[in-house]
Amino acid sequence: MSKPSNAQPSTQEPLGLDIPPLTAATKGWYGIGQAAEGIKDHAFTAYLLFYYTQTLGLSGTLGGLALIIALVFDAVTDPLTGVLSDRLDSKWGRRHPFMYAAAAPMAITFYLVFAPPAELSDAALFGWLTVFTILTRASMTLYHVPHMSLGAELTTNYDERTQIVQLRSLGGALGIALCTGVASLYYFQPTPDFQNGQLNPAVYPPFAFVFGILICITIFASAWGTQNRVPYLPKPDGSASERNAFAGIFHDIGELLQLASFRALFFGTTFIFIALGFAAALSLYAATYFWKITMAQMLLGSLSSGMGGLLGFIFWPIVATRVDKKPTFVTGFTIFIIFAAVPYLLKVAGLYPAESSPSYLPVYYANQFLWTFGIVATAITGGSMMADVTDEDECRSHRRREGVFFGASSFSAKCASGLGIMLAGLVVDYVGLVKDMAPGDVTIRMQSDLGLVVGLALFVLVSIGTGFFSRYRITRKTHAGFREILDARAAASGPSTSS
Q1: Least CB-packed of 1, 22, 62, 193 within 10 Å?
Q2: Domain extents for the chain?
């Protein structure tokens, strides 16, 4: 266990018996807030690059470059939002003002990124994508970092944190499922002009308009539904205000990187996020040109994936309670890599059922079910483990700074996802997929190249992430030791008004 430092004492007020327990309604409102990010992330990773390359004609390299440029701004906005929300002192709490402020800008910029003016040149189209991707990501940062930080503050209980992340992950999955289902059943349906409905550029702006409104409503509802917990949450750390926010970013992140468990979780999940961003960005390409399935079959695949996710949300929290979080995390991404990457390689090698075989689609649906089932374990335990690291940090620093932790985590996730999308854009150009290309126009060589690159890249990325993550050290027992120190410290400080 880390030895506490002689830093300034935390202004978090101690635990006490007068704090009401979290209600199911508060947990539910918190969890449903992740639907907004689920919608945005799925739309960006699954549809945005495809829309700009296959329907608007922008090259995959330029499309990927636009998305990676936005990450330069994320490098500042994510940790800065975390630091500012750690310091904010208002009657609405530290996190909620940022969440409310994000709702309308998020909806507007999300719509605009999918609604560029007609007949733009390649340079202008690249510029539009770059600018509104930056603005959309910045708007989401205002919500995402405080929302994640709030989840770590709602409880200090080791297992209840897993339950809160479970509900947050379920909210995100519901957003993804709704986005996928509506897009497949309504917007991407075939028309006389577009046999492959996902190639119809006219459907993307109305799709973004509807889901932009839903994002706005969801963000506001989550903030309002958790507002009642503000009196019981940690207060700003007064010692942090002695340095300006930008200096605070580098100071705080430097201290976080001294924690071995933070480094393991941060870098390990970064490579897993790269793999997920890469896979998601190529999912529509892969379904259309590699697996060669119809939109109706894609929808059934999404349904299979959703069922796997639903089972995972029920199953993995039970496992984490019984065997601890780290082994649950490792088991989950092992299942993910087996059923997400290996099928591509088997098909390229001729060891997968033939496309004409009766077992072809059932095996495809089973893979979708199983890899989603596995990845849910990492989603649930990863956020919960990061919340546990904040307790280890407080033992050392005497400060509560969830915003810094989740600002860094948010940047890691978005950076990795953006890098995955950029790599996907390079793959699109490497394989030779061009605007309006029908599945029948893809050669066997192009199909094999696509499958080989996707399968190998996923395998390598997750393997690297596993190497980093193996160094994570917090267990149920070590966390209990952190809580003993913090609870004793809090009890010695006086009466409680917060949790």
Answers
A1: 193
A2: 27-248+257-491
27-248+257-491 maps to which CATH number? Answer: 1.20.1250.20
Closest Cα to residue 245, out of 10, 411, 72, 80? 80
Q: How far apart are CA 466 and CA 257, in angstroms?
A: 18
Neighbours of 3 (CB within 10 A): 6
CA distance 18 to 15: 9
Question: pLDDT confidence of 14, banded at 50, 70, 90?
Answer: very low
Coil, helix or strand at residue 284: helix
In this prediction the pTM is: 0.70
* Residue 409 CB coordination number (10 Å): 28
Rounded Cα–Cα distance for residues 108 and 438 (Å): 32
Taking only Cα atoms into account, the Rg of the chain, rounded to an integer number of angstroms, comes to: 23
Residue 246 has pLDDT above 90, yes or no: no
Alpha carbons within 13 A on the beta-carbon side of 131: 9
Give the list of residues 6+ apart from residue 273 with CB closer than 8 angstroms, or none: 412, 413, 415, 416, 417, 420
Q: Residue 147, Cα to own-chain centre: how many angstroms?
A: 12
pLDDT digits (tens, 9 = 90+) for 144-161: 889 988 988 888 888 888
| Residues 163/27, Cβ–Cβ less than 8 Å | yes
**DSSP string spanning 170-216?**
HHHHHHHHHHHHHIIIIIT---SS-SSGGG-GGGHHHHHHHHHHHHH
